[in-house]
Automatic annotation (TrEMBL):
SUPFAM superfamilies: alpha/beta-Hydrolases
Protein name: Alpha/beta hydrolase
Annotated GO MF terms: hydrolase activity
PANTHER family: 2-SUCCINYL-6-HYDROXY-2,4-CYCLOHEXADIENE-1-CARBOXYLATE SYNTHASE, TRIPEPTIDYL AMINOPEPTIDASE
Organism (species): Streptomyces mesophilus
């Protein structure tokens, strides 16, 4: 594929401003075969040993850090132990402290300890509200295989760089030939096995994460926990509520995963995500048309045609993107990379102006902004760019999912996605192929339905348009959980708490603090609403 370098008329200062806005938005944003569920599953043969009280070490303002030892396999509680990283942000109003709020920010692969360390009660972008932080010790435990809890690694730095530099073809499912896709999956699986023992890789399932959380609870001396989980954290929460219902004080799950599909039918689950990605991009197109060319000049009223023409142009003549300090390490913007940038930005309404600006800049020969979006998407739930977090993400889901070794099922699922003719079909196809080559099997995989029976009613927060967790998953989750209540956020975005305005935040805070749930059918408008208007100088009405 040829490479071309063109000068852009777009001021570099405007690109930097747009990139800074995009960075802030990315910070705010944050998880079918005929396989059948396993017919058996193992329960712990003996109670796990009661852990010692946690020995905390101060690691920042109001922050304490520690490690907690837990059994690698709870069927052998006296066997090999593994160390889990735990971080606590102490309640800012200790006299009114309620207890411990356990959090899981999703992924799987996103570090809970780093999320806790990012808490700043004075910042509007802090992940939890000042009221919540004042009343709870916020506890983040990196799940086994994630972050500081023995992060899985599958590729060397050189292999990661090679994958990142791959010239993908958006006209081919998976972006590469079938032979190359299988070879990549083999390399990935062998690398994971070279870095971590088979027993450890087989232990990374969500049911073990739930047991680990209960060990941390016991080590804290808490009778019950409050829990907030987002994206994949909505698998962790219902798993805990199902296994330990009496130990739940209150629970909120935001942007839920369909847990039945997660555990039993992952290829169908990934197909749902592929549909949602297309719906989010279509929502950007619709809004661009509706707002008109004065607000959204890209495409002069026909953004779809302009988008398709730009992707074809970039695929034929990619743009060289030089390194820009604080923005991007540089590289190439071709059609496949631009599609990935569009997928990521279309899924967060706060990034819509950046998408418009990036597309306009690319038309003028400057690929910096779109390349910036891709380089900052460090974890792409359910498939996407390779990164450290992606390796951890894959390891957890392969431990949770049924065996996906039938390659014909992957090919059939990819064919179904391609037949729909969506713009993002290539990147969605074969996104579970690494699990087809996974080197270990989780033989005691947890398969019970996650109903949370016996736990207090759970608040389910679902976004009407969500590129990772489609709204019908939230509806299904609400029906599956015992006495759950659904809170709906209108508009586009993945997760709603702390990104969608006071209506959502107040409802979540009331559930966590006071255990008051909103009325059935409550709906909140997205604040701010989605707009495609780019920052100056691209906006038609901008001075």
């Amino acid at each position: 594929m040829s490479r071309s370098i063109r000068q852009s008329a777009v001021p570099s200062r405007s690109l930097r401003i747009a990139a800074l806005l995009a960075a802030a938005a990315l910070t705010l944003t944050g998880c079918v075969s005929g396989s059948t569920a396993a017919s058996t599953q193992s329960e712990p043969s003996a109670p796990a040993p009661v852990p010692e009280p946690i020995d905390w070490t101060a690691c920042g303002p109001r922050l304490d850090c520690a490690t907690v030892k837990v059994p690698m396999e709870y069927t052998a509680p006296d066997g090999e132990q593994i160390a889990l990283a735990v971080t606590r942000h102490r309640a800012t109003d200790p006299q009114r402290r309620i207890g411990s709020l356990f959090i899981n920010p999703g992924g799987p692969g996103v570090s809970a300890t780093e999320t806790v360390k990012s808490i700043d009660p004075k910042s509007a972008t802090s992940p939890y509200s000042p009221d919540v932080v004042s009343r709870f010790d916020v506890i983040g435990m990196d799940p086994r295989g994630v972050g500081e809890s023995g992060a899985v690694r599958c590729l060397t730095d050189e292999q990661r760089a090679q994958v990142a530099a791959d010239d993908l073809d958006p006209a081919i499912p998976g972006g590469k030939s079938w032979t190359r896709l299988l070879a990549d999956a083999d390399t990935f699986a062998k690398g994971c096995l070279a870095h971590r023992s088979p027993a450890f890789l087989a232990s990374l399932s969500t049911d073990n994460v739930a047991r680990d959380l209960d060990q941390v609870r016991a080590a804290l001396g808490e009778e019950q926990i409050t829990f907030y989980g987002a994206s994949y954290g909505t698998v962790v929460g219902p798993m805990y509520a199902t296994m330990f219902p009496a130990r739940v004080r209150q629970m909120v799950i935001d942007a839920p995963v369909d847990t039945s599909l997660w555990m039993n039918d992952p290829l169908r689950l990934l197909d749902d995500v592929a549909v949602s990605n297309e719906e989010n991009l279509d929502a950007w197109f619709k809004t661009c048309r509706t707002e008109g060319v004065q607000a959204c000049p890209f495409g002069d009223g026909d953004p779809q045609s302009a988008f398709d023409a730009l992707i074809a142009q970039l695929e034929a003549k990619p743009l060289h993107v030089p390194p820009a300090e604080g923005l991007t390490p540089g590289g190439t913007l071709d059609g496949a990379v631009a599609l990935e940038a569009a997928r990521a930005a279309a899924g967060a309404r706060t990034l819509w102006p950046t998408l418009t600006a990036g597309l306009l800049a690319a038309q003028q020969g400057n690929g910096t902004l779109l390349h910036f979006v891709v380089s900052k998407v460090t974890v792409a739930p359910f498939g996407g760019p390779f990164a450290t977090l992606q390796e951890q993400h894959t390891a957890v889901r392969c431990a949770d999912w049924p065996a996906l070794t039938n390659l014909a099922e992957h090919r059939a699922a990819a064919k179904k996605i391609a037949a729909r003719g969506g713009r993002l079909a290539s990147r969605a196809a074969y996104s579970a192929l690494n699990c087809a080559r996974w080197p270990v099997q989780n033989k005691d995989r947890f398969t019970k339905e996650l109903t949370g029976a016996g736990a207090p009613p759970i608040l389910v927060v679902g976004g009407r348009v969500d590129n990772v967790s489609p709204y019908h998953w939230a509806q299904t989750m609400t029906k599956r959980l015992k006495d759950a209540v659904l809170l709906t956020r209108e508009g586009v975005g993945h997760t709603a708490y702390r990104t969608s305005g006071r209506c959502i935040d107040d409802a979540v805070d009331a559930a966590l603090i006071e255990r008051n749930l909103p009325a059935e059918g409550t709906t909140c408008d997205a604040v701010p609403p989605g707009t495609t208007r780019p920052p100056a100088p691209w906006a038609g009405t901008a001075e």
